[in-house]
Write a sequence for this structure.
C-alpha cells in the first residue's frame, strides 16, 4: 500500500520506517527542509536503537522516502497518517491541536480518491470528529474516512514495540477504512499480534487511559518507597512481591526520582483537563501529577541530606540526564529539576550521559559535562545516579570510590547491591530500602 506519514519526528519516523519494512511504500512528509535533507542522507536526528539502520535499509530498497511536499506525496495514497506533535498548552495543560488541525486542512487539499486519514498523534477524546469536520469543509465526505490509531511506543524499544506489539488499537467507523487498516497491519496480525477494533472515541480514550494508568503505577511505588524508608522495609522486595500477582504485574514498579518523557507528564495533564471540562474530575490523576512534581524536588533534598545537609561549594557528579535509558530525550526529565536545585543550593555539578549530552547541554546552563563516567566522578564530593543506563551498572565500584573525593553514592535508581557498597566503604543512599534509604 502507499502510505503517507505527516511528521518525521519520533512517532512518525519510527512508524514510517517500520511500515516500510513491512513492505509498504511510505513517504514521510516534514516541513523542515534541513531535516528532510539529513534524512535523505541517512542521518537520523534522534537516538533510538536500530532506527538508523532501519531507515537506511528501507531507503536503499526504495520503500521509504522523505519530502516537504504533501501534494506530491499524497497522490495515490491509500492512507495518510497524522503523526505531528500535540504538546501541552502552557498554563492550561490541554493538548495543543494546532499542528493536527493544520495537517487536516492540508490533507483536504490533496485527496482525490478514497483515502483513510489516520490520526496517530495523541489527541483528546473527540479530536477525530474535529479532524473529520475540517476535512469535510474542503473535500467530499465519500472520499475519506478518519481513523484513530494511537501509538504505544516505548523509547528505547520502539521498533520492537511497533513490530511485535501488545496490541494495535484501531478506532474505525467505516467499513472501507477498516479493510485498509487491516491490510496495513496484516503482517502484525499474521504473527499473532492482537488487533483491537473500537469506536474512534474509545480508541482515543484507550491511549490516555493506558499512559495515565502506567504513570499511576510509577507514582504508587514511589509513595510506597517513601513509606518503606520510614518503616524499615525494602521496596524492591515489596515491588517483587506484589508484582507477581498477575492482576498487578511487575512492570512500572521501579521506584525512582519520578516520571518524565514525552508522554506521561503531557497526557496526565491533558486527561485532568479533559475530565474537568467534562465535569467528571479524576481526583487520582490530579493527585499523581502533584506527587510526581514534588518527587523531583524531594530527590534533590535527599542528595543534600546525604552530603551532610549542605552541598555549598561541593562538586556533585550526576550520572544520567535523560528521563530514561536508551534515549536522548530530555523532556520533563527529573534531572531538569534535580540539577538546578543542587545548583541553587551552591553545588558545582558535573554530569555525564551516554546519549543525552547534545540535548541536555542547552537545558542545563552552568553544568560541566564529562566525556565518560569516570571523568565525571573524578574529584567529586558525591556521586548521584539519576538515569539507570546499563553502563553505570557495570562500573568498577572500587575505581568509582577511588575517583571520588568522598565515598558518597546517592543511587536514585537502586542499581547497586547494598552489601557490596557497604563492603567497599561507601555511604550508600538509595530509594525505599531501609530506614532513611541508607544502604
Amino acid at each position: 500500500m502507499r502510505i503517507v506519514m505527516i511528521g518525521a519526528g519520533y512517532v512518525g519516523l519510527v512508524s514510517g520506517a517500520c511500515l516500510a519494512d513491512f513492505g509498504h511504500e511510505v513517504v514521510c512528509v516534514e516541513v523542515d527542509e534541513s531535516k528532510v535533507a539529513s534524512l535523505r542522507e541517512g542521518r537520523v536526528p534522534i537516538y533510538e536503537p536500530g532506527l538508523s539502520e532501519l531507515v537506511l535499509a528501507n531507503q536503499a530498497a526504495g520503500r521509504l522516502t522523505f519530502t516537504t511536499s504533501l501534494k506530491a506525496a499524497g497522490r495515490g495514497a491509500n492512507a495518510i497518517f497524522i503523526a505531528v506533535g500535540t504538546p501541552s498548552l502552557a498554563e492550561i495543560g490541554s493538548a495543543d491541536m494546532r499542528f493536527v488541525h493544520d495537517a487536516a486542512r492540508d490533507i483536504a487539499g490533496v485527496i482525490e480518491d478514497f483515502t483513510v486519514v489516520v490520526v496517530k498523534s495523541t489527541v483528546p477524546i473527540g479530536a477525530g470528529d474535529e479532524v473529520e469536520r475540517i476535512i469535510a469543509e474542503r473535500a467530499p465526505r465519500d472520499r475519506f474516512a478518519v481513523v484513530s490509531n494511537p501509538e504505544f511506543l516505548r523509547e528505547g524499544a520502539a521498533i520492537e514495540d511497533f513490530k511485535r506489539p501488545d496490541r494495535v488499537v484501531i478506532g474505525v467507523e467505516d467499513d472501507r477504512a477498516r479493510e485498509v487498516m487491516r491490510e496495513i497491519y496484516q503482517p502484525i496480525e499474521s504473527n499473532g499480534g492482537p488487533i483491537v477494533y473500537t469506536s474512534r472515541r474509545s480508541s482515543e480514550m484507550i491511549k490516555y487511559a493506558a499512559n495515565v494508568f502506567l504513570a499511576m503505577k510509577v507514582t504508587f511505588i514511589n509513595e510506597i518507597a517513601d513509606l518503606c524508608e520510614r518503616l524499615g522495609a525494602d521496596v524492591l522486595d515489596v515491588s517483587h512481591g506484589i508484582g507477581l500477582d498477575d492482576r498487578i504485574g511487575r512492570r512500572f514498579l521501579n521506584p525512582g526520582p519520578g516520571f518524565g518523557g514525552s508522554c506521561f507528564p503531557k497526557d496526565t495533564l491533558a486527561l485532568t483537563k479533559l475530565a474537568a471540562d467534562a465535569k467528571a474530575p479524576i481526583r487520582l490523576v490530579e493527585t499523581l501529577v502533584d506527587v510526581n512534581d514534588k518527587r523531583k524536588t524531594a530527590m534533590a533534598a535527599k542528595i543534600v541530606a546525604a552530603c551532610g545537609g549542605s552541598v555549598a561549594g561541593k562538586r556533585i557528579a550526576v550520572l544520567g540526564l535523560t528521563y530514561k535509558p536508551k534515549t536522548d530525550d530530555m523532556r520533563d526529565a527529573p534531572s531538569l529539576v534535580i540539577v538546578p536545585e543542587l545548583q541553587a543550593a551552591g553545588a558545582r555539578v558535573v554530569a555525564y550521559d551516554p546519549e543525552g549530552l547534545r540535548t541536555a547541554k542547552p537545558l542545563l546552563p552552568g553544568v560541566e559535562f564529562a566525556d565518560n563516567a569516570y571523568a565525571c566522578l573524578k574529584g567529586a564530593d558525591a556521586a548521584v545516579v539519576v538515569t539507570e543506563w546499563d553502563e553505570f551498572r557495570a562500573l568498577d565500584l572500587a575505581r568509582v570510590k577511588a575517583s571520588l573525593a568522598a565515598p558518597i553514592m546517592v543511587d536514585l535508581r537502586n542499581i547497586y547491591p547494598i552489601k557490596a557498597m557497604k563492603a567497599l566503604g561507601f555511604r550508600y543512599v538509595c530509594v525505599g530500602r531501609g530506614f532513611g534509604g541508607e544502604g
Residues 2-198 form a domain with the Rossmann fold fold (CATH 3.40.50.720). The radius of gyration is 24 Å. The chain has two domains: 2-198, 213-437. The chain has a mean pLDDT of 95.
